[in-house]
Amino acid sequence: MNTTKIFLLRHGQTQWNVEGRLQGQKNSPLTEVGVQQSIQARKLLEQFEIHKAYVSPLQRAVDTSDIVLEGRDVEVVTSEALMEISLGSWEGKLRGEAEVLTPEQYQLFLNSSEYFALQGAETFQQLQARLVAKLDDIFAKEACTNIMVVSHWIAIKTILAHYLDIPLSRLSEIADPENATLIQIEKDDNGSVVVKL
Q1: How many structural domains comprise the chain?
Q2: Could you please report the per-residue DSSP string of 143-180?
Q3: How confident is the model at residue 1 (pLDDT cuts 50, 70, 90)?
Q4: Which structural domain range is residue 40 located in?
């Protein structure tokens, strides 16, 4: 049985992660911890051949990818479809500030993501649709290879919800992916998908 493996990776820790700021599609640099996390991910991936990488163009994801793939001759494709959820006016704000500004939307964001509809931001449904379309495209294009995908916190949670067949209404049940940890999503010739957390 031929299998296509996606090694899904959240970027390393950033300065805004430490400060508790909502990043969305804005950039924040990796911390020294984030660099070390990325080096650890590189060591974990050493046992696998990586044939290609698809990476969010946000700088924290690109920097993580560069560290993980250091010393390897791997083609890297950046894709806007892998970016984090757009959070509109919340981007760059502390979580507490977002909560004070729009308390109802903040609670929906945390606990009832299927109803989240902040003006100027993406919905979770829109986010999931673009990410799943991209991963389905990667599975189709890169059959029988090992692919690294570098993305983001909420983006990865919506990917997992899709492949684990968990509705967005239960998204909070999925553990937040740690910075620079690897998740394997495997698809075989029959289209069966296995997620290894």
Answers
A1: 1
A2: TTSEEEEEE-HHHHHHHHHHHTT--GGGGGGSPPPPTT
A3: confident
A4: 3-196
80 flagged as catalytic: no
Q: Is 11 a catalytic residue?
A: yes
Binding site annotation covers 31?
A: no
Structure token pair of residue 163:
């492949």
Q: What is the pLDDT of residues 150-159, one digit of tens each?
A: 999 999 999 9
CA dist., res. 194 & res. 197, Å (int):
10
Annotated binding residue 16: yes
Q: Does 10 belong to an annotated binding site?
A: yes
Global pTM? 0.96
Whether 12 has a binding-site annotation, put simply, is yes
The gap from C-alpha 144 to its chain's centroid, in whole angstroms, comes to 22
Q: Catalytic one among 19, 46, 84, 122?
A: 84
